Amino acid sequence: MSETPKPTESELEILNILWERGPSTVRDVHEVLEQSKEAGYTTTLKLMQIMHDKKLLARDTGSKSHVYTANISQEKTQGQLVKKLIDSMFNGSASQLVMQALGNHKTNKKELDQIKKYLEEIEKKSK
């Protein structure tokens, strides 16, 4: 079985919208994209058609306006991209990635508590 294609930056923007909103038309996605950048409707349409061809999106043609759904999970995509980042930028060291992320990002108490809890769970599993 072939590996799921890695989405481009523009494709990730669309996937994030679909993961958050659920099934949406091109117009729905385009309206969200327009809030943060200049995007032409036909560009959004073409990109979503390409994503459908790449099997990143599923398309329901049952109504006049086609409804698109993400065909790949957010968790799997995040995992693939993080693995690629760790391998290419941090020589395979997840700890270097975490230290870099925590050092360059203002982390609030809630996030730190979640990180500590997760680390404790990992430690328990490894015993």
UniProtKB/TrEMBL annotation:
<dbReference type="InterPro" id="IPR005650">
    <property type="entry name" value="BlaI_family"/>
</dbReference>
<dbReference type="Pfam" id="PF03965">
    <property type="entry name" value="Penicillinase_R"/>
</dbReference>
<keyword id="KW-0238">DNA-binding</keyword>
<comment type="similarity">
    <text>Belongs to the BlaI transcriptional regulatory family.</text>
</comment>
<keyword id="KW-0804">Transcription</keyword>
<dbReference type="InterPro" id="IPR036388">
    <property type="entry name" value="WH-like_DNA-bd_sf"/>
</dbReference>
<keyword id="KW-0805">Transcription regulation</keyword>
<dbReference type="InterPro" id="IPR036390">
    <property type="entry name" value="WH_DNA-bd_sf"/>
</dbReference>
<protein>
    <submittedName>
        <fullName>BlaI/MecI/CopY family transcriptional regulator</fullName>
    </submittedName>
</protein>
